Amino acid sequence: MRAVLILAGKDLRLRLRDRSAVLIAVVIPFTLALIFATVFGGNETPRPFAYAVTDLDRGPVAAAFVDVLDRLAERDIVTVRRVADPAEAAELADGGTIDAAFVLPAGIGTDGTAAIEVIGNVNAPTAADVARSLAAAFVDDLTSVRVAAVAAAGEPHDPRRIAALAERAARFTPPVSVVDVSAQRRILDTRTWFAAAMAVFFLFFTVQFGVSSLIEERAGGTLGRLLAMPVPPGAVLTAKLLTSVLFGASSLAVLIVATTAFMGASWGAPLAVAALAGAAVLAATGVTAVVASLARTAEQAGSWQAVLAMLLGMLGGVFFPIERVPALKALSWATPHGWFLGGLGELAGGGSLREVLPAVAAMCGFAAVTGAVAVVRLRKAVRP
Amino acid sequence: MTLRQLAAPPTSTGTGAVLSCRGLRKSYDGRLAVDGVSFDIGKGETYGLLGPNGAGKTTVISMVVGILPPDAGDIRVAGLPMTLRALAAKSRIGYVPQEIAVYPDLTGRENLRLFARLYGLRAAAARARAEEVLEVVGLSGRAGDRAGTYSGGMQRRLNIGAGLLHRPDLLILDEPTVGVDPQSRNAILDDVTALSGRGVAVLYTTHYMEEAHRLCDRVGIIDAGRLVAQGTQRELTALVGQCDRVRLGATGDLASAGEALERLGSVRGIAVGADGIELLDTDARTALPAILAAVSGAGATVRSVTLEEPDLEAVFLHLTGRSLRD
Ligand SMILES: Nc1ncnc2c1ncn2[C@@H]1O[C@H](COP(=O)(O)OP(=O)(O)O)[C@@H](O)[C@H]1O
Ligand SMILES: [Mg+2]
């Protein structure tokens, strides 16, 4: 163990002294994330859906619906502004000031055909969709009462009937799916997404500096010297893997802190982010080590690792958001990158450690399989 | 004493020897590189493995330091069996590999501190010892510079220093002077002599006869993986017997000249080089006219003639029929 720490300390010191290693580990991913986020991202941050409501009815049923919106606003799921004129509401939606406007027609509480009109902002399709399903759910709920009342009495302006509807409307709770979609949009904001994508993409280059130096030591003769010393052969390999893990973990930690501080990225619950980051480092180390174990020279290892890092990064969706293409999204689960970004998405939707456990487990699975193959193969390489 | 007796393993069991090797054998892809090598080294003794490139010296050393498993044979360091995992045995050895094996991106001082720590020294002791060794190998002035910026000779000295850090009982140097300027080379040879004077056993491989001559108490002559003879220098030169060593500086058709010389009855060994011919002759003084006649008869011109007492070079020529240098 002592030899492992001494050797890993030596390797880390060499890496920190090596400018290109620090560039690849921290400087380049940070700079790229910053550039991409600035070019493509604007100032978009996750925010509640912005709704407006126009109440042309002014009856108790309409009031109940506005009340539903207010309760959602209290939970920061939506914002609501009251607008007197439907034309003004449409203008706000068209101009992008709000995501959608609800127009509550006169007679909503009594008229058998009245429906809530939703005017959506075309640039906020999700928010408009959510608004429509909310309105539809509300109206559906009332329809059942209305049908029952019509069967019983028949007089539309019967005060008892209006009272029954109002009472029903007041008890309305938005369907879980609506709240779920709006509150937990499992999508990272642009800044965080670029920060995370660049961080995990370059991680697969950063960890190479540990394992691949084993090949360099073999070529440079220092491996022979180490093995002639009272140093157990296993200690050399362990030190190399440890170097990868430590270097990868510290670069990722620096990137997370730096993008949070200087880019406004919001990674999510710290403990859960740490678990995801740790698992990603292990997976990257395992994958890289397998490649190193197959290569004959350090150059060969470097180029194979670069190709694999590109391929996995692309499949894992670090270059473009793959959420909208289901086939690509499915493929991304075959990569640690996909799990890492997916896990962070859970966190953006308000998840905590428990929600990211599947992603952590998947990445640890990658690490275990690739790590085992690499150790079996590299043990032979370390044995002279 | 016959060659067979000299080349046979010593009859002593080797107890008390710092290093004892018995019947070492190693082949690479079915080709024998080392074949039945046995020798002992006692405390304070300097033992030289002398042989041309490709003779198997590095292969022997790699097995001795425990980084190459032998196909057959037994290695003991201070009585401890050497294996890949024999950490106790390994801690007795200071190893100076043939290729420079230091970290070019660490300074000379950092390299030595690192290796001292790996040899088990505590941090403070490692720091102090690194300074001492830097002094010994004459690198104190450049200790803070990256090893990659050192000249070839300085890197060689650092490479050697790394083998001295833990005051080993046995120092193993594999051709430590290859590619070194004459001054550094002298310094290295002096260091080895001094260490040996302090009781360190030394195993030294070289293809330079002069180094073996200058350093070694005993020499093993290795050729094509076999130890063809071993003993003190006096014992070895006695093998050549009454022969004289003749060095002819010559130009022209040296190959034909060599063939002509082989036909002379008194010639025992012959090696044709680029600028002359070396040969062993049972009575050079009498045979010299015949030798010169044979050479010029074959179309070569003799420029100089040197007659010498037999040395290790002559022993090699005598035993293998070839010259050490080529
Ligand atoms: N790793 C190896 N693989 C195959 N052949 C080798 C290897 N190392 C050495 N040899 C061969 O073994 C023989 C002895 O080599 P070596 O021990 O390096 O000789 P020396 O050190 O005396 O020059 C040579 O013929 C060499 O080509
Ligand atoms: Mg050699």
From TrEMBL, chain A:
Keywords: Cell membrane, Membrane, Transmembrane, Transmembrane helix, Transport. GO terms for molecular function: ABC-type transporter activity. One of its GO terms (cellular component) is plasma membrane. It is found in: Cell membrane. It comes from the Bacteria. Pfam families: ABC2_membrane_3. The chain crosses the membrane at residues 21-40, 193-215, 236-263, 269-292, 304-322, 356-378. The keyword Oxidoreductase does not apply. The keyword Iron-sulfur does not apply. InterPro entries: ABC-2_transporter_component, ABC2_TM, ABC2_TM_bact-type. Residues 159-381 form the ABC transmembrane type-2 domain. It is a multi-pass membrane protein. Its main location: membrane. Belongs to the ABC-2 integral membrane protein family. This is ABC transporter permease.
UniProtKB/TrEMBL annotation, chain B:
Residues 19-249 form the ABC transporter domain. SMART domains: AAA (SM00382). Gene3D superfamilies: P-loop containing nucleotide triphosphate hydrolases. GO terms for molecular function: ATP binding; ATP hydrolysis activity. Keywords: ATP-binding, Nucleotide-binding. This is Putative ABC transporter ATP-binding protein YfiL. It comes from Virgisporangium aliadipatigenens.
